[in-house]
């Protein structure tokens, strides 16, 4: 998620700074700062719009996140014959915003298979949901000889699933209760393996962690 978000932000800023003409002089520091500010404001506005679309038009206000200690309880304790590394969790503050996350990595003894599982509470911070909301809103369905990527549902929650035949990677991201994001990626375990892991998590109980 973090790399996806950084890439999206970087691209948006680059487009904003590129301007319309190739022969204009380089912007002065004050101009560049102004353009960056405008780009950030535009992205924030888009994030709020997408957040409103996903919740029937209601814009959510950021709230205190669920503790990472609670999120750790939703990670799978075991996975087939793979060995789990020490689960990691943290609650982070960035100015007035806070969010929590919990992650765990599984690996087979010979290293041929692995799985990454994460549970995130972005506590209604619009910017952090933007990449997921964009994918889910577009209702993507694309299949080729190389694999597929598509918008699906998992236990009634919207999700985005990918399968790459060449690399043997399976991925899925699920938006739970318009607040939590559960992500899983696997390598070497076959098509649909990421979805199978997510289906083993009690998503409906996780949704209850968000007060109505």
List the main descriptive attributes of the protein structure presented here.
single chain; 212 residues; alpha+beta; 2 domains; nine-stranded antiparallel sheet; 6 helices; 9 strands; globular; disordered N terminus
Can you summarize this structure?
Helices cover 34% and strands 30% of the residues.
Structure report:
The protein is of the alpha+beta class and 212 residues long. It folds into two domains: 2-54; 68-207, no CATH class. It has helices at 2-18, 29-54, 68-72, 126-138, 193-199, 203-207; strands at residues 83-84, 88-94, 97-107, 114-121, 141-144, 147-154, 157-164, 169-176, 180-187. Strands 1, 2, 3, 4, 5, 6, 7, 8 and 9 form a nine-stranded antiparallel beta sheet that branches. The two termini are 26 Å apart. The model is unreliable at 1-30 (pLDDT under 50).
Q: Which of globular, elongated, flat, extended, rod-shaped describes the shape? A: globular
Instruction: Kindly provide the radius of gyration, computed on alpha-carbon positions and rounded to a whole number of angstroms.
Output: 19 Å
* Percent of sequence in beta strands: 25-35%
Oligomer: single chain
Write the layout of secondary structure elements.
Layout: H1 2-18, H2 29-54, H3 68-72, E1 83-84, E2 88-94, E3 97-107, E4 114-121, H4 126-138, E5 141-144, E6 147-154, E7 157-164, E8 169-176, E9 180-187, H5 193-199, H6 203-207
Antiparallel strand pairs: 1-3, 2-3, 3-4, 4-9, 5-6, 6-7, 7-8, 8-9
Helix pairs in contact: 1-2, 2-4
